[in-house]
Amino acid sequence: MLLCVGGGIAAYKSLELVRRLRDAGAFVQVAMTAGAQQFVTPLSFQALSGNPTRTTLWDSSAEQAMGHIELARWADRIVVAPATADLLARLAHGNADDLVTTLCLATTAPLTVCPAMNHRMWQHPATQANITLLRERGAQVIGPEDGPLAEGESGPGRLTEAPAIVAALAANLAPQAPAKPGRLNGMRVLISAGPTYEDLDPVRYVGNRSSGKMGYALAAAAARQGAQVVLVSGPVQLPTPAGVQRIDVRSAAQMREAVLSALPADIYIGAAAVADYTPRQVSPQKLKKTAGTQTLTLELVRTADILAEVAVQEQALKLVVGFAAETHDVEKYARGKLADKHLDLIIANQVGIAGNGFESDQNAAIAYWDGGQREFPGTAKTQLAEQLLDLIAERLDA
User: Does residue 208 have an active-site annotation?
Assistant: First the structure.
C-alpha cells in the first residue's frame, strides 16, 4: 500500500492510518507533499511504517534508478489521505508537478482518495466536478464525514477515521461475486440511495437515518448482473460499488435534478429516503438561541416527489420501482403509494424494528405490484438485493 499524504491539518490522522493498515497486514510505504511536511514530519511516518518516507522528486540517491517509477510500479493500491481540494484538482486534471501527483499519474494501481477540507471547499462545484471525474475514472472515494472542522465550523469535510478507511479498503479489495448473466445485461439502471439533508443554516440540517446500504447493495448487484448502473447518492459513508457511476448530491432538490438529468433509463429504482419537506428559507448565519424563548418555529415546504415525477416521464422506462419505509400498516400505505405514484413495483419494509431497516446490515421486505406480492424474510442487505433484482427481472416481462 502506498499512502500519499496531502497538505492539510488532517495529515496527523494519517499516522494512525499507517498503524491500522499495518495491523491489517499491509506493507506500507509513504509519500508526502511539501504541504504535508508542514504538519507532520517524514520521520514520524518512517517510524510507523518501517520504511523511508519519500518527499521529493529531486532525491538524487533515490532517483538514480528512477525511484518514483519503481514506487509507482510497486504499489498494489495508492491511498491519498488526506486528499485536499488542491490535490484532488491536480489529480483530476493529470498534473505531475510533485512526487505525489507524479506517482498517481505513473501508476496502474487502483486509486483511493480520502477527502478532507473546509465544508465550503468540499461543496464548491469545482471540487464536486473533480470528484466526479475521479470516480468516472474508477477511483474509490472514502468520505468525507460530517462534523466539527479544525477552523471551528461544522459540515461535510472531516477525514474519515482510520478504522473506517481500512474497512472500506478491505471491502473494495474483497473478491467480487462473479457476474450473473441475465435480463439486466446491457440495461441502464438508475438508482437513488441514501438520505437527503435539508439545510437550516450553515451548521444544522433536517435529515433522516438512512445509511444508503440497501441502495448501494442494489447498485452493486445490478452491476454484477451486467447492467450499466448510475447511482445518485445522498450523503453517506460508503465506497462506490465496482463498475457503478456515482453522482453525489445533498438536498432533495439536487437529487431531483440529478435523477432527471440521468434519464433515460430502462429501470429506475427509488431507494433513497428523500426528505418530504425542506425549510422555506435557509439562514445565512447560524440560528441563535433567544433568551426567554423555549420554542423555535420552522416553516417547511413540500419537496418535489421524485418517484412520482419519474413514473410519468415520457422516456421509455420499462420499470419504475419505489421503496416504502413504514412504521405501521405497511401493506395499506405501500399499496397506496403503488397506485398514487403509478409505480410498477414497490418494496416495503417496517422500520423501527431492531436489526432491520435504517442503519442496519440486515433487512426484510415485502414487494407489492398490481395483483401480487412476494415476501422476503430477513437477511443481509447484499443478499436481499440479489433477490429483489431477480424479482425486478421477472416483472420486466409481466
Answer: yes
